[in-house]
Amino acid sequence: MRIWLMSFSDTEKSVVNLIFDGGSYEVDSGRLKTFKGAMNKENVHLVDINICNAKRILRWEKLAPGPHVILLAFSLHDGEFTEQTKEILENLEFLGEKFWNHIFVVFTEGNCSINEYTGAQRSVLEWLLEKCGGKYYISGSKPETTKRRELSDRIDKMICTNNSMHLVLPGISDGASQSPSDILR
Description:
By secondary structure, this protein is of the alpha/beta class. Helix content is 32%, strand content 23%. The protein is built from six helices and seven strands. Helix 4 links the parallel strand 6 and strand 7. Helix 3 runs parallel beside helix 4. The two termini are 25 Å apart.
């Protein structure tokens, strides 16, 4: 299973620990930080991608085939859901028309809850939850094992809904000329 973890900051360690059984995994810190381990006894390859640089990163890294799941990680802190956040998320739609079918949002603990958002921030949060089809998980105060099992079950359900298909990535370029092999593809 291939998972991309996208967030605005460095890897949310709490999210990585929720994915892998027992919180154990191998880390490869090449040009992109990748993690390998097991989730529900299935091999998982997780790639950490900074959401603000996603297009540039993906243009150069050529991570094909695409992921089965894209986890968008947010902390529930005041100020997280702005019009700029919405614009950045809309810009990820370059990944294709099925992009939102593969999105699962994970909220880590913060100093507020979803229900406490008001005004423009609430509007952006509601937009996000609508775009991803209501697929989200809030990491709360449950024991780690329970959280891990709940999250992995929801991810598995989403993958089944997508007929176990990975996200088919469109050709990603910056508009510059392409090589003959890229044109033939």
